[in-house]
Amino acid sequence: xxxxxxxxTGSPGIPVPxxxxxxxxxxxxxxxxxxxxxxxxxxxxxxxxxxxxxxxGHFVNRGAHPGYLGxxxxxxxxxxxLAAATAVSTASGEATYPVMAAIKWLxxxxxxxxxxxxxxxxxxxxxxxxxxxxxxxxxxxxxVMAAFGTTPxxxxxxxxxxxxLTGLAFATPLAAxxxxxxxxxxxxxxxxLGIVPLFLFSGVFFPISVLPxxxxxxxxxxxxxxxVALCRMLDLGRTAAGPLxxxxxxxxxxxxGGAVLAHRAFSARLRT
Length: 272
What we know:
This protein has helices spanning 18-30, 34-63, 74-94, 97-105, 108-113, 119-147, 159-178, 185-201, 213-221, 223-236, 241-270; strands spanning 9-11, 14-15. The chain has 11 helices and 2 strands; from the N terminus they run E-E-H-H-H-H-H-H-H-H-H-H-H.
């Protein structure tokens, strides 16, 4: 008699980490919408780089002081920053409404916990899926950036892990917050009063050195600024070890701290 899959395995005799089983659920669900998502993933960077980098950049390059953008064109300046901003947008979207849906509307997490999965497995599985979605979004941006000629250094490949790290620095604390909410009314405020202002004032479109001193200090403290700086340094090949490590350490600390808070929030919510 043939042996069936053992509990916790994907096929006979092959163990599968429990977190990956949770990730697999989100991947299977995504198969219903991936075509529209993939199209948007590639169209958005083309539109942004064409409009902001090439269109607006034409006028910026004509009027800007040679040292204003660090000696690069506006297209080269803005492209890696937009990749970081896209990572944040993708991660934030995946860590808000889907988390609430899995708790309140679809009860997905509770169904997972009815299996041998534990709370930590469920959280890790969802975070892995968010990381996968961010990876796809940033990879698409890199492909388009290369087509626009904005990847002058081989170190530009580092934009991919840097973008994923930036996304996770937002995803983990947002997942922790989402797990405590009873409805989705707060999410619109997060995007309007949090994500959008960060998008505008974290060095994506202009150096934050031009901001008034008070706003400049706040901008330096935002996680998106560190993600933008990290991606820009890697894309342009300006990888001084000290600043690179500082930006990465900031994002790692935020992602790790958010993961701890998310585990506590998930444990409290899913065990009630």
